[in-house]
Specification:
It comes from Streptomyces asoensis. The protein is mainly α. About 85% of the residues lie in helices and about 0% in strands. The protein has 5 helices and no strands.
């Protein structure tokens, strides 16, 4: 069982990655399904509005804060190499940094940028919308699973 600053870091890591898992999961199972039920022009317009609102401090602090916590955990663990919990702490960090943060940068954001350039009612937007929904949601599922797995692994470091 880990203790001291590692315990605090693991608890904070568990909370932040767990919160992000909930955000990503809710988005996949509620928001994206709701948007898919709209006519394409309305879905595109709504998703573009959602993507713009995601850049607000509330979401960015949680999303980037979780990444920062995971990076700190990884660096401190790697440098100090504690007797207990090393594998769990490094794995928990890698899961979020690669599976949530990395997937966001390489999978979701590029699709958001393409969608943002399209006029919601245009033939291009209507054609792209089903592909966007399918691919974006698939990447988002991965973010949810990776974030949840990260939280679970951090909890395992605590026991």
């Amino acid at each position: 069982m880990i203790d001291g600053p590692y315990e605090v870091l693991a608890v904070v890591g568990t909370l932040t990655t767990g919160l992000m898992a909930g955000v990503f999961c809710a988005f996949s199972v509620l928001v994206m399904r709701g948007l898919a039920a709209l006519p394409p022009a309305q879905g595109v317009a709504a998703m573009n509005a959602i993507n713009s609102s995601a850049l607000t401090p509330a979401f960015m602090v949680l999303f980037l804060g979780a990444a920062a916590v995971c990076a700190v955990i990884a660096v401190v663990t790697f440098v100090l190499w504690p007797d207990d919990g090393t594998v769990h702490l490094l794995l928990g960090s890698a899961l979020y940094l690669c599976g949530a943060f990395g997937v966001t940068v390489t999978g979701n954001v590029p699709r958001n940028e393409v969608l943002a350039k399209l006029e919601p009612g245009s033939p291009e937007a209507v054609t792209y919308w089903p592909t966007y929904l399918r691919e974006w949601t698939r990447w988002n599922h991965l973010r949810a699973v990776a974030s949840a797995a990260s939280a679970v692994v951090y909890v395992l470091a605590l026991v």
